[in-house]
């Protein structure tokens, strides 16, 4: 086990006594707690449910019933006429929300896997929260895709199932690629969520009784914490972390191909792949920020694990990604505009000056102006409520981007006689239902699953220590692998 | 053979597949009544999946196009044109296509009913008709029939004669809008005999259309559309030139090479000026144009004199020039003068009786006189008699006078004064719901008949009708009801039933030479008559008019306008709905050709005018005339004179079934009662006001609101 | 490589210079915009009517529409009528994008066919159609009794959630082919007419074999006036429009 010393921030302070305390206060990994105490803290998070929790859960449940069961049920029974889609805006908010949820799901994996691969230590306390977000928002994306379909009861025709007519799905269709990519992503991200859960589930098994013990016994797969098990887990995680990154990139690239390969002005753009990936990460990292703020505010003991340093780090990430998004947006816009194709010109003009022009400007303000004007400031980055608002605005901006790309762009085509308009209908309650469903799933998960990867935090804390070189406290990190 | 024969025998006798068109002979007497029989035992010639085609006549307007209806297992499936019928040669318009939505309309009257809606049996119903015919003095009875000159009009005529009652009045809104009586009167004045005119569009090199919407509703649109197509692309290397004068860019005007949005009422003056300039260009001195003031005419029309001169050169240089007077110019106070002035251009062009010119329509094979539709002046007289209680019984068939006669004439109020009103309507229209009895006739596709043509075919044509399916409901042919009633009160007509009546009328054709088909005796002839959908001559039978119109000075008075509003109201019959298509859901959903609006009424306003008035698309405005007011959504129409607003006629029903009722408005509610010299309503000379209501009601359009103009303007 | 015939072609294998089979020529000089084709199509193909609100919201089910675009301002305003229906592209953008092979190319007729009972309603085909001619069954539209009596038994009645479009009245093509086969002959020119061409009072729509140089439609399409809609997209439409000579002007 090699040991390397590397100074972290504030390493050059002058008031040495306070300095060490400050370092501990600032950095979770330098502020270790005894194992038993930390385990108890995490167990405490899952129990101790108040009535307020159930009230909120009941409200969310009611919204799910209204949005996803009632509204969607009526729509299935009566047809998509209840939604706002029409000719020529054949795709509407359902696909906006599909892309939206898939985008959000990106950050979970991005934060977890990419930061794991690059050994970014600040990830440790919130990988779990981010991965859960991935899985739950992918489920919402699936809901949206199914809601979008005209005959959802035949959705299984998209599966390559054997049938007596020997009909096979059309693998030339981007929707088929999409279907496969999203399924792969859902499976792999679920496994990627589950693997690091195992030691924590075992920890929970050992510290609970009753149904919880039974449940955790099953889920923990008999984990004993032997050296061999740890080695396997680390190997597996390593493989997954590397493997899931290309999957993540492919998913949103393929989502972008749904649009980019189509023969439509505004859509047929070669840069849509990376543009969508960056957009997804933009909205996703912002959503991780929001989730962390919410989790920290509402779940016991979370303020120990989630500290301003994490918002600070996320804030920097958000700022960089916002710049990347702006770069791709400008690139796409510039190339399309300069091309001077008649229909693209009409479309771009419609984006800005048409009925939905305000959404176009909202997109630019939320995606570029808001992060650029705020996130350079450390104080803002370290203020949870400010980060929540910024995260929300970025998500609004990214929603606006998808709204511009899907229904607004579909309104303009090469047959001006059939240019159209779009007024959302039942999409709105179904979206509200899906948001409620997401929150509800998260709330329920917070009762069952350790929201903090305890072993990862403990591992990090073990690796980090403060040593004194003379009078100077220096943070050292030992590489565990 | 019994009188009631089964449907399958009926098909065997009268039906043939149009595709094979085999000649049937010696089948014995064709059936008179069609009774329904379940298809549990399939007739031996019927195969699953095989259709039977029946030829009949379209009753959606009075043009009399021939149809072939595809049927299968007793259901009518599709209307197609009868390729033999010289009127339409296998083609149909949108209204004809939707005819089945009348036959299978969910709001049909299914039984004879009285005003309380109580169902009656037909025996009682015939008793009521008999009692009504017998109870009143002959001059207390009036018959009002539709515009189509069909067998029922002939039968009503004979019934009226038998009873000594006044001859039936033939009326339809389309006839009023086209001022057909005025054109007939002008023909009488110019050519010595009243007649319908045939304009040989196909052969014309240059056509000046003075508001003639021959591609939309005018007289025989399918026939004239064919003529138009031939004029344009019929001869390789030649393309006829069409100039259209109309205040708005109508569907016909869109197809013109040049369109001039002239002031309503100036058409006659313009025609005279064009005549004078043409004569000057040709170096002729024509008495007719001596007193014509070209400058004044140009100013009245709103055109430059140089434009008139250019047009006159175009007209004068052509060897086959044609001038067509449309409906709206004739429905002005100076309409009759205008008709003469426009027709005189044809005399000037020397095209009377020449290819590409004006002809007299062929005499009909049956009852060959000229039967002018009733003028509004005659209707007003009828209304007056009704209101004074002089008319005690009114029989209405094939027309919906409460809707189709402009409200200003007071028909609706007068109807209450009539003791017994009997409607033979198939649908609960505004007149039927106010009648004392509704004795529903079969719809056109379930009934026998024949029809003469107003214009459209060069051959002497009698379009034949037969039931294509067994009557769907408990309806009965009005002819049979009337004949049975007449017999019951002891004044029988010499016909056993409707079929006997029709056969007696066409009997003379059996021996007529030169027909499309011939037979040695009536039964075979009758079968062929049904098979081919009528009878017509092989040769053209157009008449050549002669006229001395150019020898006498012509003058057109300036039009007098009713109302003191700022805007001329230009009303046109909806090209899709026609006068009575509003109850057919698919016609409602077929977009209007010019505005693409569906399911409603709109008012077309020039965008400049709208700007000055502060109006936008879909703003609801109140259009006010001295005679009425309607509220309607605005459609900014980029091709209409700024001082003219336009509305289509066809919607605004207070009854007439679920698809028509309460939908849109009826612009005829704004009309006054002023008539022109020929007695036709001068509805086109109306000036109205526009009042804002502050409300908005979005019109359903097929076109994109942003795409067709560009979104900057919205 | 041997072909697996269980897998339908996602795209016609269109070779350069190869022609289609059935085609149309539409003479815009004589099209009067009368909408007889629109009504005829609706009657033949069991197209439901959708009512005022839906019709105004882009949910009309017209398989064929007459376009009318304005140029210029009053009084120099002009327009023309252009009937637009499925162009039966030889290289149809709608075909590859369908995940379930509901939009496929018929090898026999060389037409683009929509398999209604295969369609799951993703509506991608419609998005990818540059002519915007595909209509979707947004609802189960009501056809009150007895209007259903006129339903054409040769044409499937579509359920909600299914895409549909102009078929070139393929049921009529098949009928004529069957008839010709039973009589031991080829289908002759003009024997098959889709409902729109059959109704057209101006005879502006001409239908027939475009692979037969002697057919009326081929001769018309080869006129100098012919052009294809959005030709630069290389969709190889089977419909040729003949330019109108009409230029409405004033003054």
Key features?
heterotrimer; B: 714 residues; alpha/beta; Barwin-like endoglucanases; six-stranded mixed β-sheet; 22 helices; 28% helix; C: Alpha-Beta Plaits; two-stranded antiparallel sheet; 6 helices; 18% helix; disordered N terminus; disordered C terminus
Describe this structure in words.
The complex is a heterotrimer of chains A (481), B (714) and C (251). Chain A is mainly alpha-helical and 481 residues long. Chain A has helices spanning 16-26, 35-46, 51-78, 93-117, 127-148, 174-194, 197-206, 210-219, 227-260, 272-298, 302-305, 308-339, 342-353, 357-374, 378-381, 384-410, 427-448, 454-463, and strands spanning 3-5, 464-469, 472-478. Chain A has one domain: Formate dehydrogenase/DMSO reductase fold. In chain A, strands 1-3-2 form a three-stranded antiparallel beta sheet. In chain A, α4 packs antiparallel against α5. Residues 1-7 of chain A have low confidence and may be disordered. Among the domains of chain B are: 4-107 and 444-473 and 496-540, Phosphorylase Kinase, domain 1, CATH 3.30.200; 195-359, Dimethylsulfoxide Reductase, domain 2 (3-Layer(aba) Sandwich); 567-713, Barwin-like endoglucanases (Beta Barrel). In chain B, the strands form eight sheets. A six-stranded mixed beta sheet of chain B has the order 6-17-16-15-7-8, sandwiched between helices. In chain B, strands 23-25-24-27-21-26 form a six-stranded mixed beta sheet. In chain B, β1 (4-6), α1 and β2 form a beta-alpha-beta unit. In chain B, α7 (180-191) crosses α14, α10 packs parallel to α14 and α15 (376-387) packs parallel to α17 (411-417). The model of chain B is unreliable at 1-5 and 7-30 (pLDDT under 50). With 251 residues, chain C is of the alpha+beta class. Chain C has six helices and ten strands. Chain C is globular and about 45 Å long. Chains in contact: A-B, A-C, B-C. Chains A and C meet through α6 of A and α2, β2, α3 and β6 of C.
Q: What is the helix tally of chain C?
A: 6
Order of helices and strands of chain C: EHHEEEEHEEHHEHEE
Report the major sheet of chain B: 6 strands, mixed
Strand order of the largest sheet of chain C: 8-1-10-9
Which class do the helix and strand fractions of chain B yield? alpha/beta
Largest sheet of chain C: 4 strands, mixed
> How would you sum up the global shape of chain B?
globular
CATH fold description of chain C: Alpha-Beta Plaits
Domains of chain C (count): 1
Fraction in beta strands of chain C = 5-15%
CATH architectural name of the domain at 4-107 and 444-473 and 496-540 in chain B:
2-Layer Sandwich
Assembly state: heterotrimer
Low-confidence stretches of chain C: 1-12, 246-251
List the chains of the largest interface with their residue counts: B-C, 84 and 62 residues
* End-to-end distance of chain C: 67 Å
**pLDDT under 50 segments of chain B (min length 5)?**
1-5, 7-30
């Amino acid at each position: 086990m090699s040991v390397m010393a590397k100074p972290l921030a504030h390493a050059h302070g002058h008031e040495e006594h306070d300095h060490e305390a400050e370092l501990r206060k600032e950095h979770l990994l330098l502020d270790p707690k005894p194992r038993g105490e930390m385990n108890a803290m995490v167990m405490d998070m899952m129990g101790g449910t108040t009535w307020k929790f159930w009230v909120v859960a009941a409200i969310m449940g009611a919204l799910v019933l209204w949005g996803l069961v009632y509204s969607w049920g009526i729509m299935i029974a009566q047809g998509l006429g209840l939604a706002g889609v029409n000719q020529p805006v054949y795709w509407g908010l359902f696909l906006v929300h599909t892309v939206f949820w898939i985008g959000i799901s990106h950050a979970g994996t991005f934060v977890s896997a990419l930061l794991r691969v690059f050994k970014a230590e600040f990830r440790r306390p919130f990988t779990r929260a981010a991965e859960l977000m991935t899985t739950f928002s992918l489920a919402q994306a699936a809901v949206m895709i199914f809601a979008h379909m005209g005959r959802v009861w035949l959705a299984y025709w998209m599966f390559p199932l054997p049938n007596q007519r020997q009909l096979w799905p059309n693998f030339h269709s981007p929707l088929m690629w999409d279907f496969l990519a999203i399924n792969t992503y859902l499976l792999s991200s679920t496994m990627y969520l589950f693997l690091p859960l195992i030691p924590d589930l075992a920890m929970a098994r050992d510290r609970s009784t009753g149904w919880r013990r039974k449940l955790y016994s099953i889920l923990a797969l008999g984990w004993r914490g032997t050296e061999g098990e740890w080695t396997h887990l680390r190997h597996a995680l390593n493989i997954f972390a590397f493997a899931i990154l290309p999957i993540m990139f492919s998913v949103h690239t393929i989502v972008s191909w749904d649009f980019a390969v189509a023969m439509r002005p505004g859509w047929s753009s070669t840069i849509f792949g990376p543009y969508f990936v960056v957009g997804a990460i933009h909205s996703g990292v912002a959503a991780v920020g929001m989730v962390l703020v919410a989790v920290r505010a509402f779940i016991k003991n979370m303020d120990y694990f989630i500290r301003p340093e994490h918002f600070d780090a996320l804030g920097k990430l958000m700022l960089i990604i916002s710049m990347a998004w702006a770069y791709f947006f400008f690139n796409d816009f510039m190339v399309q505009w300069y091309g001077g194709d008649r229909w693209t010109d009409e479309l771009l003009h419609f984006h800005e000056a048409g009925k939905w022009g305000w959404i176009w400007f909202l997109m630019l303000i939320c995606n570029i102006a808001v992060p650029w004007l705020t996130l350079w400031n450390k104080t803002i980055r370290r203020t949870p409520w400010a980060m929540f608002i910024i995260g929300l605005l970025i998500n609004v901006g990214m929603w606006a981007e998808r709204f511009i790309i899907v229904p607004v762009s579909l309104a303009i085509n090469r047959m001006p006689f059939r240019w159209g308009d779009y007024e959302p209908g039942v999409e709105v309650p179904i979206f509200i239902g899906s948001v409620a469903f997401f929150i509800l799933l998260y709330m329920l998960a917070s009762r069952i699953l350790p929201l903090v990867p305890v072993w990862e935090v403990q591992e990090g804390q073990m690796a980090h220590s403060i040593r004194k070189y003379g009078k100077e406290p220096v943070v050292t990190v030992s590489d565990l692998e | 053979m019994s009188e009631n024969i089964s449907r399958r025998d009926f098909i065997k006798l009268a039906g043939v597949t149009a595709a094979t068109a085999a000649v049937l002979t010696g089948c014995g007497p064709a059936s008179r009544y069609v009774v329904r029989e379940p298809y549990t035992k399939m007739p031996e010639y019927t195969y699953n999946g095989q259709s039977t085609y029946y030829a009949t006549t379209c009753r959606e307007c009075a043009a009399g196009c021939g149809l072939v209806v595809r049927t299968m297992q007793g259901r009518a499936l599709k209307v197609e044109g009868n390729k033999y019928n010289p009127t339409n040669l296998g083609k149909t318009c949108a209204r004809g296509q939707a005819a089945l939505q009348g036959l299978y309309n969910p709001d049909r009257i299914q039984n004879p009913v009285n005003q309380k809606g109580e169902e009656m049996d037909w025996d009682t119903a015939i008793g009521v008709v008999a009692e009504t015919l017998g109870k009143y003095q002959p001059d207390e009875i009036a018959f009002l029939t539709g515009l189509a000159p069909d067998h029922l009009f002939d039968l009503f005529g004979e019934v009226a004669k038998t009873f000594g009652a006044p001859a039936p009045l033939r009326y339809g809104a389309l006839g009023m809008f086209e001022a057909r009586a005025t054109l007939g009167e002008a023909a009488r004045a110019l050519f010595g005999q009243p007649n319908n005119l045939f304009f040989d569009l196909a052969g014309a090199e240059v056509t000046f259309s003075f508001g003639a919407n021959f591609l939309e509703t005018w007289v025989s649109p399918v026939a004239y559309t064919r003529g138009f197509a031939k004029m344009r692309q019929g001869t390789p290397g030649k393309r006829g030139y069409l100039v259209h004068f109309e205040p708005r860019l109508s569907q016909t005007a869109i197809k013109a090479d040049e369109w001039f949005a002239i002031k309503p009422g100036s058409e006659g003056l313009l025609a005279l000026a064009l005549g004078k300039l043409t004569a000057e260009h040709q170096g002729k001195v024509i008495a007719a144009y001596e007193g014509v003031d070209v400058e004044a005419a140009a100013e009245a029309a709103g055109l430059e004199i140089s434009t008139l001169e250019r047009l006159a050169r175009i007209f004068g240089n052509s060897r086959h020039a044609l001038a067509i007077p449309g409906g709206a110019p004739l429905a002005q106070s100076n309409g009759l003068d205008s008709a003469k002035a426009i027709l005189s251009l044809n005399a000037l062009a020397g095209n009377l009786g020449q290819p590409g010119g004006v002809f007299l329509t062929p005499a009909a094979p049956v009852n060959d006189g000229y039967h002018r539709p009733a003028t509004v002046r005659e209707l007003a007289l009828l209304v007056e008699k009704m209101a004074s209680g002089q008319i005690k019984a009114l029989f209405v068939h094939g027309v919906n006078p409460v809707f189709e006669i402009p409200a200003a004439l007071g028909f609706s109020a007068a109807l209450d004064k009539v003791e017994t009103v009997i409607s033979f309507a198939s649908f609960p229209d505004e007149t039927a719901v106010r009648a004392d009895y509704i004795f529903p006739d079969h719809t056109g596709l379930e009934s026998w008949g024949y029809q003469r043509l107003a214009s459209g075919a060069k051959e002497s044509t009698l379009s034949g009708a037969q039931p294509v399916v067994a009557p769907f409901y408990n309806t009965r042919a009005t002819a049979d009801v009337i004949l049975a009633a007449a017999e019951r009160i002891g004044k029988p007509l010499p016909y056993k039933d409707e079929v006997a009546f029709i056969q007696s009328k066409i009997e003379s054709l059996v021996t007529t030479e030169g027909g499309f088909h011939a037979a040695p005796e009536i039964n075979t002839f009758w079968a062929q008559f049904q098979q081919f959908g009528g009878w017509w001559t092989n040769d053209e039978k157009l008449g050549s008019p002669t006229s001395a119109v150019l020898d006498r000075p012509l003058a057109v008075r300036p039009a007098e306008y009713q109302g003191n509003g700022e805007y001329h109201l230009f009303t046109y019959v909806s090209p899709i709905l026609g006068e009575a298509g509003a109850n057919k859901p698919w016609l409602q959903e077929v977009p209007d050709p010019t505005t693409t609006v569906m399911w409603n009424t709109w008012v077309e306003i020039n965008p400049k005018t709208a700007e000055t008035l502060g109006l936008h698309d879909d703003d609801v405005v109140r259009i006010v005339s001295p005679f009425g007011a309607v509220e309607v959504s605005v459609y900014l129409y980029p091709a209409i004179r700024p001082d003219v607003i336009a509305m289509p006629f066809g919607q605004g029903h207070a009854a007439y079934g679920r698809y028509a009722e309460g939908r849109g408005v009826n612009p005829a509610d704004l009309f006054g009662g002023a008539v022109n010299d020929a007695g036709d309503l001068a509805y086109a000379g109306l000036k109205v006001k526009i009042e804002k209501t502050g409300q908005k009601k979005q019109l359903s359009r097929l076109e994109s609101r942003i795409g067709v103009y560009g979104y900057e303007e919205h | 490589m041997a072909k697996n015939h269980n897998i339908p072609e996602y795209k016609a294998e269109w070779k350069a210079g190869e022609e289609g089979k059935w085609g149309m020529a539409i003479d815009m000089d004589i099209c009067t915009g009368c909408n007889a084709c629109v009504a005829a199509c609706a009657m033949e193909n069991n197209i439901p009517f959708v009512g005022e609100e839906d019709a105004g919201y882009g949910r009309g089910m017209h398989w064929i529409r007459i376009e009318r675009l304005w140029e210029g301002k009053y009084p120099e305003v002009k327009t023309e009528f252009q009937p637009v229906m499925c162009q039966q592209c030889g290289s149809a953008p709608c075909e590859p994008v369908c995940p379930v092979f509901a939009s496929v190319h018929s090898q026999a007729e060389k037409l683009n066919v929509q398999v209604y009972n295969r369609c799951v309603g993703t509506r991608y085909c419609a998005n990818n159609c540059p002519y915007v001619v595909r209509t979707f069954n947004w609802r189960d539209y009501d056809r009150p009794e007895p209007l259903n009596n006129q339903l054409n038994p040769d044409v499937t009645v579509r359920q909600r959630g299914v895409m549909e479009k102009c078929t070139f009245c393929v049921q009529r093509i098949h009928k004529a082919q069957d008839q010709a086969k039973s009589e031991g002959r080829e289908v002759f020119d003009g024997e098959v007419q889709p409902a729109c061409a059959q109704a057209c009072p101006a005879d502006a729509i001409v239908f027939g074999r475009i692979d037969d140089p002697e057919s009326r439609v081929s001769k018309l399409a080869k006129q100098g006036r012919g052009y294809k809609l959005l030709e630069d997209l290389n969709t190889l439409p089977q419909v040729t429009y003949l330019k109108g000579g009409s230029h409405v002007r004033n003054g």
